[in-house]
Design brief:
The protein has 394 residues and is mainly β. Helix content is 3%, strand content 39%. Strand 23 and strand 24 form a beta hairpin.
């Protein structure tokens, strides 16, 4: 952050030199190795006494003295305690009021990324930043003390601490349920040929690689079954890590409830299958989604229809469809022809059938087993004659 401060020099040449002091700056992070990993927390503490210089009486600026953590892209090189003249200054990371100054200053990786400008906030390689505790004239706007060359004000600074930020370790997984393995890929930009160790693996039945090279892949083997939780941690030589927890979906096999043979004239049937939510396919004349209508096609002989059901599985899974064959039998044809009228003294007449072998019934047994109708036996009047063809679908 930069401030216009030259306009202040006209007013404060008469001020006396105000001594200030600030204690030793220390840092604490996970491995105390000067490296900040993606997502890591760290903190700065100011050890020893801290005092603010005098109130400069700047018009329209409140005197709210405090301590801040200045961040630099290179080792600080400003002169005469004038912080704002350093071209490497990126800004004040955080400030605390002098009245209630309590260290440590606590940050995490994202706090730091939010405080620095592009391209430093989008790491493609490790970046070293430099930190220094400084006294502030107004901590609410992170305004450092201003130096007047004719009468310098002592804006105190601590020692300088350097920290190196590493890019995120990106780990991706690609399941292959045909081969019962999961391919893993690990990448950390700008880190060259670093080797990652693979730790904290589960489940125990799978075979994990012990390490993996940067920008390369390896396989977790021996998955058996489906919906298996698995996980591991990828760690580089500096202790930066990335954790993965996933579920191996595997192969999902469908099942269709069996269907007995149907007659051509039967009512539509709702097919049942598992797991629910899959898709059906087959002859569109008899199948609509999960509804099978045997009367969709006129048939004269028994006909087989193949119906398939494919389960819907999450990404990375394999769908193994199921199929059944539904046999549809034609309805027996019991049609016959007969005269529309006869006289009671006419000769007997044979009735003509589409399918032979059926059974006749008529008043007074006026139709014999061979389908011969005798009007004299029937007698005068309207006659009801029934012909039934035996079979699976009469």
């Amino acid at each position: 952050m930069r401030y216009c401060v030259t306009c202040l020099f006209l007013f404060f040449g008469f001020l006396s030199h105000g001594q200030s002091s600030i204690g030793l700056l220390t840092v604490a992070e996970t491995d105390n190795n000067g490296i900040i990993c993606y997502g890591e927390n760290f903190s700065f503490s100011v050890l020893g006494s801290t005092s603010m210089p005098v109130n400069l009486g700047i018009p329209a600026v409140n005197y709210n003295p405090g301590v801040g953590i200045a961040i630099f892209a290179a080792y600080p090189s400003y002169l005469n305690n004038d912080l704002l003249t350093d071209p490497a200054l990126l800004g004040i990371l955080e400030s605390q009021p002098n009245a209630v100054f309590l260290s440590p200053f606590v940050f995490d990786y994202n706090d730091l990324m939010a405080a620095v400008p592009p391209p430093l906030n989008n790491l493609s390689a490790p970046v070293t930043l430099y930190f220094q505790a400084v006294t502030l004239y107004d901590f609410t706007i992170t305004l450092p003390y201003i130096n007047n060359p004719g009468n310098p004000i002592d804006a105190a600074q601590s020692n300088v601490i350097s920290l190196t930020l590493q890019p995120e370790i990106l780990v991706t997984t690609t399941p292959d349920c045909q081969n019962n393995w999961v391919e893993i890929n690990a990448a950390q930009s700008g880190m060259g040929n670093v080797v990652f160790n693979i730790n904290n693996t589960f489940p125990s039945g799978c075979v994990f690689p012990s390490s993996i090279n940067n920008q390369s892949s390896s396989n977790i083997l021996n998955f058996s079954g489906n919906n298996i939780p698995y996980g591991f941690e990828v760690v580089n030589s500096d202790g930066c890590s990335s954790q993965i927890g996933e579920t191996y979906v595997g192969s999902i096999t469908a099942a269709i409830n069996p269907v007995s043979a149907l007659c051509e004239g039967d009512s539509p049937l709702t097919l049942q299958a598992s797991p629910a939510g899959g898709t059906w396919s087959g002859n569109a004349a008899v199948l609509t989604n999960d509804i099978f209508d045997p009367s969709g096609v006129n048939i004269s002989t028994g006909t087989n229809y193949v119906v398939q059901y494919t389960p819907i599985v999450p990404a990375g899974g394999c769908a193994i469809p199921a199929s059944i064959t539904i046999n549809v039998l034609p309805d027996a044809n019991s049609q016959f022809t007969a005269p529309t009228e006869m006289c009671v003294n006419d000769d007997p007449i044979g009735l003509q059938t589409s399918t032979s072998g059926g059974v006749w019934s008529a008043p007074n047994n006026s139709v014999n087993a061979q389908g011969v109708f005798n009007p004299e036996t029937a007698g005068a009047g309207l006659q009801t004659i029934i012909y039934v063809v035996n079979g699976a679908c009469p």
